[in-house]
Design a protein that fits this description.
By secondary structure, the chain is an alpha/beta fold. About 40% of the residues lie in helices and about 20% in strands. It has 20 helices and 25 strands. The chain has a five-stranded mixed β-sheet with strand order 11-12-13-14-15, with helices on both faces. It has a four-stranded parallel β-sheet with strand order 4-3-5-6, with helices on both faces. A four-stranded antiparallel β-sheet has the order 16-17-19-20. The longest helix has 22 residues. Strand 23 and strand 24 form a beta hairpin. Among the domains are: about 250 residues, Rossmann fold; about 130 residues, GMP Synthetase, Chain A, domain 3. Helix 11 packs across helix 12.
């Protein structure tokens, strides 16, 4: 039985940090003029106390659900820690979400008090109480009305309430899973789950301290950003700026100047693709210097891997680093020293590139149900391509009973203090994944190498069998295809079919360069009717996959798209996971033609 280390709840977690770091900046908030306004731990602490008093005045108490619909911002954290201090449950929801999903979550979790970010969202949800009996109050952050967050905090300032201290087994949050195949499930995570997870991961990164600055780009409504970023940063007194939007990330990096990133491989893939294209366009001396810098960095890394060093190589690398790589680091704010990434393993070539330019990326693995971290790479123990070693206090077992004969992998089963209590109101779904001995069935396939690093090999629900009996893990193939500069997105399909096919969204910016060279129109619609373009792209994809995959895995036919998979067209979840069934149903006729 695991004994949780103190503080084992998020109320005392916050209290300790506020006391230690009261004058430190917790949040850097965009001022609308290209600058940042600092907000200290002490200032946020006062707001938490006031919001707690206001919630108590509204009748919120132990076990009550407090909901929020908002992107990451200081008020998100204020309401969360205020709710924890009343032994309440926090129910975060994404701002960019379907109305029926909000309604389902609010009803299922029995939200009693709801805070929304804007008057526009309030107009959409203001009639929810008519259908949801538990929902008593809806307040708005950005409002001058009586139901504003400012009014709630003023009410609390006039009616102060001391924080209640939850137990480690009390529910802190319900994180609703994405619902790729069914309705969302509310994952019940305890205070012990969350404090354990942030602490265990943090101990692998001794360089993280109160001088660290992060940039919040992943939603705290997901457990990775909640445990890996918000709660984590609070424990060591660091500060966080904000990405305003995906389209402003490049600008926000320069404004916030982060020192460390909590991110996903997709961000680094895009940066890498952008750098490569920029160098190709520049050509001449710039391209030669870039190639020389990459070669010198690679040579230095490969010598270091053998425990060797060379003065000449080190000098050349130092010189070229100053001439070339500092400019790339400056474009990311100039201070980034590393990053933690999750959701998919980094491509080996891209991971090596960022290591070589001085921004190592460390892959980790976990699920919402594990709060989320299970394994992590770290500066002291790192293997590119793996997702790291099991965190202290957990045990991971590979169940090969589900594997085909001869396979060296199996289902990943996790035991530890980070395992959820279950799915809210879903006993059958809970029983399907929580084993009698306390293990959690992840649904992911993996294997350990001889040194204890975990390698993810596929997702059981996503794997399928071709009509020839061969098993396919489409996500692995898709990730490889998406590394091709000419490809913006891709989905592989072939369940029960004689061969795989692929739905491809070309990168039309890169395609425009091809069109210019060929003297043809770069209009996306024209390109998708251009047989030569489609033949070129098909050839590039097949040639790229030939290096890594078996012949049966490589798609034989291709459907070229002019629309990406997005949240808005319901083909992606909020955490950017592909809703395969929705995509297949949307393109059913076109897919069938590829098999006719």
């Amino acid at each position: 039985m695991w004994t949780y280390e103190k503080p084992d709840n998020l109320v005392e977690w916050w209290n300790e940090s506020e006391k230690k770091y009261s004058g430190n900046v917790l949040f850097w908030v965009h001022d609308g003029q290209g600058g940042l306004n600092p907000v200290t731990y002490g200032e946020i602490g006062k707001r938490i106390a006031n919001a707690r008093g206001g919630l108590a005045k509204m009748g919120i108490g132990e076990g009550d659900a407090v909901g929020i619909i908002s992107p990451n911002r200081p008020e998100w954290a204020v309401l969360a820690y205020a709710a924890y201090g009343l032994k309440g449950r926090y129910i975060p929801m994404y701002e960019k979400e379907l109305l029926q999903t909000w309604k389902y979550i609010i009803r299922d979790s029995a939200v009693k008090f709801l805070l929304v970010s804007t008057p526009e969202i309030y107009e959409q949800v203001k009639n929810f109480p008519a259908d949801i009996p538990t929902l008593e109050n809806i307040y708005v952050m950005e409002s001058d009305e009586e139901n504003s967050l400012a009014a709630l905090e003023k009410m609390g300032e006039e009616n102060p309430v001391e924080p209640a201290i939850p137990g480690h087994d009390d529910i802190a949050v319900l994180i609703y899973t994405s619902g790729t195949t069914a309705e969302p499930k509310g994952v019940l995570l305890t205070h012990g789950n969350l404090t354990y997870c942030s602490r265990a991961g943090y101990r692998l990164y001794p360089e993280l301290d109160q001088n660290q600055v992060g940039i919040s780009m992943l939603p705290w409504a997901h457990s990775y950003a909640l445990s890996g970023e918000l709660n984590n940063w609070i424990q060591f007194g660091g500060s966080l700026g904000f990405m305003r939007d995906v389209t402003t990330l490049a600008e926000d990096l320069k404004i916030v100047k982060p020192t460390y990133l909590i991110s996903v491989p997709r961000v680094f893939n895009k940066i890498y693709d952008g750098i490569q294209l920029k160098m190709e366009d520049a050509g001449g001396l710039k391209k030669k210097l870039f190639d020389a810098a990459c070669a010198a960095a690679k040579e230095k890394r490969e010598l270091a891997e053998k425990g060797q060093s060379s003065g000449a190589v080190n000098f050349k690398h130092k010189l070229l680093d100053k001439l070339v790589f500092t400019k790339i680091r400056d474009a990311m704010g100039g201070r980034v020293t590393g990053a933690l990434t999750a959701s998919a393993a980094m491509n080996k070539e891209i991971a090596e590139f960022f290591y070589d330019i001085g921004i190592p990326t460390y892959d980790c693995y976990g699920l919402t149900e594990t709060a989320p971290a299970v394994t992590m790479n770290s500066p002291e123990d790192w293997r590119i391509g793996s997702v790291g070693k099991v965190l202290e206090g957990q045990k991971v077992v590979i169940d090969q009973s589900i594997s085909e004969e001869g396979a060296d992998d199996g289902e990943i089963i996790v035991y530890g203090p980070n395992i959820m209590k279950g799915y809210h109101n879903k006993p059958e779904e809970t029983a399907a994944v929580l084993m009698p001995d306390g293990g959690f069935r992840t649904g992911d396939r993996g294997r350990f190498d001889d040194d204890g690093f975990l390698w993810i090999t596929g997702r059981i629900k996503e794997q399928y069998k071709l009509s020839n009996g061969k098993y396919v893990f489409p996500a692995v193939i898709e990730e490889e295809i998406k590394l091709i500069p000419e490809v913006a997105n891709a989905m592989v399909y072939g369940d029960g079919k004689p061969y795989n096919i692929c739905l491809v969204l070309p990168d039309f910016e890169v395609a425009a360069r091809w069109a210019a060279r060929e003297g043809v129109s770069a209009d996306p619609g024209e390109l998708l009717r251009n047989e030569k373009f489609k033949e070129m792209l098909t050839g590039v994809i097949k040639s790229h996959l030939n290096k890594t995959f078996g012949r049966y895995e490589i798609p034989e036919k291709y459907l070229f798209l002019d629309e990406d998979f997005t949240i808005e067209n319901k083909m992606l979840t909020q955490t950017m996971k592909l809703k395969r069934r929705v995509v297949i149903d949307s393109y059913a006729d076109d897919i069938e033609k590829l098999y006719s």
